[in-house]
Amino acid sequence: MLGLLGSGVVAGLAGCSGTTNEDPANGSEENGTGDDPPGESEASGGGDEGTATVWRSFHGDAANSGYQPAATGPTGSVTERWQFDAEAALAGSPVVVDGTVYAVSLDGTAYAVDAETGDERWQYPTGRTSTATPAVADGTVYVAGGRVLCAIDASTGERAWETHPGGGVLSSPTVADGRVYVGDRSGAVHAIDAAASEVDWSFEVEASVDAAPAVIDGTVYIVDGDRSAYALDAETGDPNRTFIPEDRQRLRSGASVGVPFDADAAVGTASEFAASGQARQESGSDWSATVADGRVYLASADEIYAINAVSGGREWHAQLGDAQPRFRSLSFGGLQRSVSIPLSAAVADGVVYAVGGAAVCAFDAATGDRLWRTPVDGAGIRIEPGAAGSAQFVADGRSMALSSAGNLQVGVAGSSSPVVADGTVFVGTGETVVALDAETGDARWRRGVGERVTTTPAVVQTPAGDGAVYVGTGDGTLYALVDDGE
C-alpha cells in the first residue's frame, strides 16, 4: 500500500469557500522526477500544442486541461450554425479534429460529423452502452463502452480493432505516446498499445476508475472510486506517489446510490432510500485529475485540491459546495449501468476554474485564493417526479430518469465541466450553454438549446476560421454554436 501523502479536508463550508494551504513538501520527495515538474512542458498549456482546430479527448487534451489557447471561441451573442440528431442521448463529450466532430451516443454508436456543415460522414455502432468521451489520435478514434475498447478508422468509420482490457471499461480513454490509457469497473487502469491493441501494463487500485486518466511528461494520473489519486510511470505502470484525503471513508460512504426500478416508489431522498432498503451504496468518485503548471488539480462537485505533482503533497484545498451523495448508477431488471460523468477543473493562464455549489468558481492556481464566483442555473441537488410512469433524480446537476418501459435516460441539469478559450469560460447549465468572462466571471452570453446539456462543451476554430462551441443534449442532439455576427 502506498504511503499517505497529504491529509485533511475543510468540512462544512458551502459555496466556493476560502482555502487551506499546505507546504508543498508535505508528501514524500523520494519519488521526485527531475527539475521540470509535470505540466510545465510545451504541451501542457492546454488544447493540442497550439492547434486551434483540435479538441482531441476528454477536456481537450491528454492532461485534461480544459483549455484551448489557440481558438477564438464566440464571445458575443451566438447562433446555431447546425444541429445533428443522433439516435440516443449524448453523454460523452464531443471531440474535434481537423474539421470533423466525433461523438458517441449512449447506445454506443460513434458518429463523425462535418464540423462546418453538420453533415454525417459515417457512423459505427459498437453495440455497447457508452457514457465515455472518445479520443482521437493518429487517424484513429478510440471508443470505450461495456467491457470493450474499440479503435475506429477516423476517415472511413471502419473498425481497426477492439480489445477487452479488464472488468468493464468505464473511463474515457486518453491517448499519449502510442498508448491508450483507460480505467475500468473492477478498479484498474490499463495501458494499451495503440497499434497492436495489446495491454502493456495494468495497475490495480481499491475502487473503480471512472474518470479519464491524465497523462503528461511520462506520468499517468488517475483517481479511483475512493477518491484516492495515483501517479504512475507511463512506461511501466509503477506507482510513484499517491494522495489520499484523511476523511475518504466519509466521502466513500456517501459517494453514490444505486436505485432499483420502481415507477411508484423510486422517488425520495437518498436517506429515505437507504432506510427503506431500496438503495444500494456503491463505492464511486466524481473526481478527475487535471495537470498543469506542476500541479495536479482534483475537482468534484463539492471541493477541489491542488497537489504538488512532484512530491504528492497538498498545496491548497477549497470547498465548492455542500458535500452531497451523488446518484451515479441505477439498477433495474437486474441490469446496472453507470451514468457517471466526473467533473474536471479547467486551468488557463494561472487560474483554475471549477463548477460546484450551484456556481462557477475561479481560483488563483498557485495560492487557491478565490477570484470570483458566478451562480449558474440548474446545479444543486433535488429529487423530483418525472413524466407519468417514470421517476427522475437530479443530483449535483445530473439528471437520471427511468421510464415505465425500463429504459435508462440520462441528462445533465446544470454542471458540465468548465472549459476555457479566448478569455471565456464555457459551461453547460440545465438547458443552457453559458459563456463567462474568464477574468471577472461576468456573463457574456447564454444560449438555450431546449434540452438538458449532457456533455462538456468542446471549443475549437472551425474550417471557416471562426470559433465554435460544440455541445450535446439528452435527446441526442449535437449543436454547433458560433458568433451571430451582430
UniProtKB/TrEMBL annotation:
Pfam family, one: PQQ_2
Highest taxon of the lineage: Archaea
Record domain Pyrrolo-quinoline quinone repeat: where: 79-165, 166-398, 414-484
SMART domains to which the protein is assigned, alphabetical: PQQ
Residue numbers spanned by region Disordered: 13-53
Feature: compositional bias, Polar residues: 19-31
SUPFAM superfamilies registered for this protein in UniProt: Quinoprotein alcohol dehydrogenase-like
PANTHER family: CELL SURFACE PROTEIN, OUTER MEMBRANE PROTEIN ASSEMBLY FACTOR BAMB
Record protein name field: Pyrrolo-quinoline quinone repeat domain-containing protein
